[in-house]
Amino acid sequence: MRQGEISSKGAWTGNPSGGVKAPDPIILPDATTRFARTATRLEALAVGHPMATWLHFMAQLSRAQQVAANALGHLAGPTQAAVDLAVAARMPPLAADGHERDIAWHDGLAVLLDTLDVDATTAPAREVIAALRARAPAWVEALADGFLQSGVDVEDAGAALYVAAALQVYFTRLAADLSVASLRLLPERGLCPCCGSTPVAGVVTASGQTPGTRYLHCSLCATAWNHVRAMCVTCGQGRGLSLKGFEAGSDAVKAETCDDCHTYAKMLYQAQDTQVDPFADDLASLGLDLLVAKAGWARHAPNPLLLIGAADSL
Questions:
Q1: Would you kindly state where each structural domain of the chain is located, as residue ranges?
Q2: What CA–CA distance (Å, rounded) separates 96 from 144?
């Protein structure tokens, strides 16, 4: 088997009459529960948290995302032939920086904004939402392109928060409709095999057919893919890896730091907390980010809902 290839789903390793089953290389998201699950976890983590008000707001945003995900009709995703061509070329079939978006994603954004309880938010947030509603579709498309490709100006960060949330809904719906059997891991294992985005965090399983397996979870489309443990998500090295925690935080959340590339990635351990959610637990562990950054490591990739200046608009 060449580097980068995977065994067929469900193939047995070792003795074919029994033993440990190989982990599924790719797990597609369930668009009917993805955002509701994150919202529930955020509400639980907000209890007694120093950033409780913000976590409650993010839970409200996640619930609005779930309403939008459920409300969107059929989306014009890539054909199976297009998916097969992309996979054969070792490219993500929903490449975030090149995918031609279905205009229906604007409907998801509208539903998301309509679902939010703006009366429960701050005055700056209400101003951002009102201004975003008034923007022309072309401006919104340009902001979405900036978010996915080149970056967002500080003055647009508030609006970009909601656009990013709507894009998460859109790409999650598209990923959920793909055939997992037709997908392959990318040569660059730290990127999502569906859309090519970076992971928000990794989760080390504690149950199922392959406990102890690490899955990275895409920050955009919520696809999970297997990534070898004890190997840096950023540079692929394993010599200088170590785990760092936060004394005031959960034992289930660690920062995996790499001395070779001086980056870190969040890792969550189900053995310590079976309810961990990569999207919620990442937001609730910002203290760990601050601690590790102060010690000299840069985050592997940002959380798309933690845009520069976005917190000022909440």
A1: 34-176, 187-313
A2: 10
Superfamily of domain 34-176: FdhE-like domain (3.90.1670.10)
CA dist., res. 225 & res. 147, Å (int):
23
282 has a pLDDT exceeding 70: yes
pTM higher than the cut 0.85: yes
Angle at which helices 157-176 and 34-46 pack, to 10 degrees?
A: 130
Examine the pLDDT at 11 and tell me if it is beyond 70: no
What is the architecture, at CATH level 2, of domain 187-313?
Answer: Alpha-Beta Complex (3.90)
The pLDDT of residue 43 is above 90: yes
3 state SS for 186-203: CCCCCCCCCCCCCEEEEE
For the chain, the first-to-last Cα distance in angstroms comes to 50
Instruction: In whole angstroms, give the CA distance from residue 314 to residue 242.
Output: 35
